Amino acid sequence: MYCILNNKYSTCGDCVNDWLNSKPYRSLLLWFGFFCVFLFPLFYLPLYFMGTDYSAWGKDSLKFRHCINSSIQPCSELSKFPIGYLANSFLIEFLKNYGFQTGLSFVLINLLFLSLPIFFLFTTKKSKEALNSSFIYITCLLITPIPSFYIYSGGLEIQAGVVIGLFLSSFILYIQSNRISKNNHIIFFLYISAFLFPLYKDVFLITIALSLFFSLFIYFYFFKKSNFRNILTFNSQIFFLILILIFSFFCSIFYNFFKYQSLTPLAYIHEASVSSPTKIKSLEFLIASLLSPNGGILIFWFSSFFVCFLLIHTKRHYFSNLTLLTSCFLFSGTVIGLALWWAPFGWDSWGNRLIVPTMLGILISLISTASFRDSFNRNNFSSPTETTYYSIFTHKFFFTKIILVSILIFSFHYVLVSYYSDKSKLLRESLLNHPSCLEMMDAFKREGQNQGFAFWRSDYYYTCARDRFLHIPTFWKQF
Predict the structure, then answer these.
(1) Tens digits of per-residue pLDDT, 262-281?
(2) Domain boundaries, given as residue ranges, for the chain
């Protein structure tokens, strides 16, 4: 905070470097204290399994096998969720056969996925760069509610976020330089992640493809840092990438046909057509998604991205301009799209659960494509300029600094509440403990069965949703 409020330093990184280097023991004490604060509750305090949608898709493997063995088609008993959830259902069933409980199975799978970006960094960067980037990645991940709520969870947001991040990272690194494109590890991660990420949600393919298209167009057309022919020199690999994406998309289509005898996900289409909010309500959902104290994007992610920008600079790394452009388009498209959905946060969630894949993917791609200053060359799309991306934190207007510091405090408070509070009580207070939400549940018992998804356009639900958005989480004792 001192770095932001003090005009002596040009960037926060300069201030932090000066403070840490003045006395060497400060750095050791700082990081020791940091990891104690965030690792202690993960290993010592009681865990809480947040099931999210697992109860709906957890038995899809059994239902799928039953439909195959009985030649039932369409297999309408399957859940509405995409084929990636079916794969997880088989994986959880496999681990259960070896004695693993459901919660522990999710922990193992989520930790495996979260370790993939570290493996990616060490196979695509020099050892020192990879070590610095891995340190930044772990630090930024800890300063989110993800370790405390989403690792021990039945949601697949972590998996989706990691594969999105790996796809963006490998694709951008592939595009950036002729030398880098020959790295077989990048090609491997590019192809694997390209196959996986559309399986978690069909719409990911559309939003990511459009984001990359617009960012590449702006980069080539306006910045003119390189010629478009640089991409075409690798057209055989790009062609194979397109084939993989098409194959992944056809897997989703085939799964839709198996469930509905239709190429489209009829359950999602029907749900959207009946329960989608009005334009005015979508605008309210958009604002709430960004600013809600109950886990809006700004509160959930600001401290993590602030530390990310800070550490990237202190380690003398620079963000890829192409990654920043892509992140802006992807973030904007996802937030607007979720505002058109009847539950923009997801129903059973801590904070804005539905945005987690996008934000985690952006965080991974920003860190993975950031480059050490000495490693840049003149042909690199992301060669650094004298202007850094940290000017927002060193703005001369005192009022701007106060706003940033306030958001940072609220964000850290939200993260610490996630770590150190009784999670079952947190969720109960956050989701359904408001009078309007209790009234909504009573109305749902009376009218929900007759109205179906149309109930989620009722005043009962909208009043409850507004109260949930305005809720401010507080500490609940663990014992």
Answers:
(1) 999 999 999 989 999 999 99
(2) 2-420
